[in-house]
Amino acid sequence: MVLAMHAGFAFLELGTVRQKNQVNALVKILVDFAISTVAYFFVGYTVAYGTSFFTGAETLAAKNGYELVKFFFLLTFAAAIPAIISGGIAERARFGPQLMATAVLVGLVYPLFEGVAWNQHFGLQAWLKATTGAEFHDFAGSVVVHAVGGWVALAAVILLGARRNRYRKDGGISAHPPSSIPFLALGAWILVVGWFGFNVMSAQTLDKASGLVAVNSLMAMVGGTLAAVAMGRNDPGFAHNGPLAGLVAVCAGSDVMHPAGALVVGAVAGVIFVFMFTQTQNRWKIDDVLGVWPLHGLCGAWGGIACGIFGQHALGGTGGVGFEAQLAGTLAGVAWALLGGFAVYGVLKAVVGIRLGAEEEYDGADLSIHRIGSTPEREAAW
Fold first, then answer.
1. How far apart (Å, rounded) are the C-alpha atoms in residues 33 and 59?
2. Residue 167: strand, helix, or coil
């Protein structure tokens, strides 16, 4: 189910970008996933969990290959980092340098924080427990996956710069409406369905899987949808990103919140996405094509903090979480992502360049990189 989410990322991006960049959206997500698999198998998983796969197949097959199943599951999380970034840098990023960034991010940057949050690395969790009485709790990755991906994407988008002629010298803004609302909607729905695997099976064993997580995910999804539809005045782009905003936000506390709390968390995330997407695009002129920083970066950070609020007994939660620990862990994730994002994309920009040329961007990434459009015309004479 989580693997299928990458098809969701692909079609969401395909439907949002202009037609001349649709092929690139599809190819990027697939090849990024392939690079992520290699980087995470040989380096990233070892960095995060200290487990190496350089042993015989007989050893790997122990316990029905459970360690490999765990790797496969967590790989789909790790590969979401470049899939998130892909939507922000769409339509003007070079292909090769983005694959290089994916290798470093999935092999090193992401697993370092993953190990801190989920495997007690560097003593941050122990320090939070001793200082605040609770560890940083991120059940399914609001911060570890989504906020980290979103804030890395912000760094990449800033270093890349806006699409040419997006913001004109006279102060006008060129609107680039989605090329295909049906494909955008398909991508959103694939992501929504896959998210129930993302959240519920973050328990990682069947005996720990909980209906509470499933229903909290559901409530956050509908909360985000309704808020985005109302706030976005029935805009279909906002309507289909609203449920994703809610699901991003509920990941962290989906195992500790009451469903009513999850509904509120999702609704707030829907409002955050619509307001901040509009703000970044129109006021601040940050050309984040799919709005991945508001969607994943900000809603992910909200989810990390919201876990410390709505997970409390006083608001119907199961308890065991603390606001101070959630705030500290969230801020640590955001800071690490910004540092990693500016470092990786900054070095690539200086050394090899990360942006298509003016003519290549005008022609579109499909023809410039892949030499074929999404709907090529047939030759009249065979």
1. 26
2. strand
